Amino acid sequence: MLDEQNRFITDASHELNTPLTSLKTSIEVNLRDKNFNTGKAKEVLESNLEDVNNLQFLSAELIKLTQYQDQNNNLQFEKFHLADVIQEAVEKVKSQAKKKNISISLILQKFI
Question: Are the C-beta atoms of 22 and 50 separated by less than 8 Å?
């Protein structure tokens, strides 16, 4: 049980750290941009809002998980397509990659 708890803490920490790192990087990069304008500010805020929404979702899911654990470990799992998760992650970093002349190409297949 202790190993499971440690693994959970590690996984949860990683999942929370990903959007936080994205937020921090976005803010730091744009603060250094000498050509930062209102248009870019709106774009950055929209991206940051998406990351905040992801953090809220993760937080809510962690609360649900503790509630499930209180109910004799009756967890409910759902299926998802990993390709969708990867595509979403790529979309989040695409604009930052473009600024650095980095091209991202993605070829995914969904298996049923």
Answer: no
